[in-house]
Design brief:
- The chain is an alpha/beta fold.
- It has two domains: 172 residues, Rossmann fold, CATH 3.40.50.2300; 150 residues, Response regulator (Rossmann fold, 3-Layer(aba) Sandwich), CATH 3.40.50.2300.
- It contains 14 helices and 14 strands.
Length: 335
């Protein structure tokens, strides 16, 4: 979905009466924020909101919506336990929020099951059609809209190509997935297919449901003689990016990630959508709904901007020489 086309939809005047009425009456619109992890605590034990939420809030401010004036937030965090998302989504419905912003696929699905009337803006959702959240990307048809995380096999194939270029002799790659995330099985299968079809590289899935299971998974990966590890995007695994980076070095396993923060934490490289930009874009959906647009008529936006990050410090620690042809294609090189 191109931005110009999206703006055209915003100008259609399609009204979502309950939210529009709230805005016209001068009442604060209540936005529910459903996420998998709580913000970290700062030095004074006060919540430090992550940069992505800050980008979302700043974008809302640029669009004329100021917290405490015309909007208010209701935060719900699952503390890394996806099983809690259903009850947290139900709480937001009970709070009579005007919009629910769901930060990942499990959160979006939980919100979708909790309500069929409250508008839901999903961020970085995987396969919204396959998940049953929308009828189609162009015409969602229900109360869910937002932004997807990937564009399928092409994205995974490109990621594997980058990894194979950095590790030319790669024959088997470990796919680290979280079985608690119901959408990882399908994603891992797609990555495995991309590796085999494009590069004749075999993939093998290893699982870690909780942080304490990650070390065990890496032991199994090493015993299976995998030449690299591909970390499937997941909030639980992302929260443990530093641990994963240390284990990758311990077992001399080059790693490919879908999230840039994992490469920043010490992973070899990452290739994926700019999630901070997606959070900014999510604010335009919230703005459109607050101004009367229906989620059913707001097309799902697919990512058009992907970032390749290469961590040269990690490459040196692994004894890997990144080819100049790959370095010049990187959006950012960490040294």
């Amino acid at each position: 979905m191109r931005r110009r086309e999206f703006i055209c939809f915003l100008g259609c005047g399609l009204v979502c009466p309950c939210v529009a009425l709230a805005q016209q009456s001068g009442k604060q619109a209540k936005i529910g924020w459903l996420a998998s992890f709580s913000p970290r605590l700062g030095s004074e034990k006060l919540p430090v909101l992550p940069p992505r939420f800050s980008a979302f809030r700043q974008s809302l401010e640029h669009l004329g919506h100021v917290e405490g004036r015309d909007i208010a937030f209701e935060f719900r965090y699952a503390e890394g336990n996806y099983d809690r998302l259903a009850s947290l989504a139900a709480e937001l419905v009970e709070q009579k929020v005007d919009i629910i912003v769901a930060q990942n696929t499990p959160a979006a699905v939980a919100a979708g099951k909790a309500t069929s009337t409250i508008p839901i803006v999903a961020i970085s959702v995987t396969d919204p059609v396959g998940c049953g959240l929308v009828e189609s990307l162009a015409r969602p048809g229900g109360n869910v809209t937002g932004l997807t995380f990937s564009v399928g096999l092409d994205h995974f194939t490109k990621s594997m190509e980058f990894l194979k270029e950095a590790v030319p002799g790669l024959q088997m790659v470990a796919l680290l997935a979280n079985p608690a995330n119901p959408y990882h099985a399908g994603t891992a299968s797609q990555i495995e297919a991309a590796a085999h079809r494009a590069l004749n590289v075999r993939g093998k899935v290893f699982q870690a449901r909780r942080p304490e299971e990650i070390a065990t998974a890496f032991e199994a990966i090493a015993q299976a003689h995998c030449g690299a590890v591909f970390v499937v995007a997941d909030h639980v695994l992302s929260f443990e990016a530093a641990q994963i980076a240390k284990l990758s070095l311990k077992y001399q396993l080059p790693s490919m990630h879908q999230l840039r923060i994992e490469a920043e934490a010490g992973g070899l490289m990452s290739y994926g959508p700019d999630l901070t930009d997606q959070h900014r874009r999510a604010a335009t959906y919230v703005d459109a709904i607050l101004k009367g647009a229906k989620p059913a008529d707001l097309p799902i936006e697919q990512p058009t901007k992907f970032e390749l990050l290469i961590n040269l410090n990690t490459a040196r620690a692994l004894g890997i020489t990144i080819p100049p042809t790959l370095l010049v294609r990187a959006d950012e090189v960490i040294e």
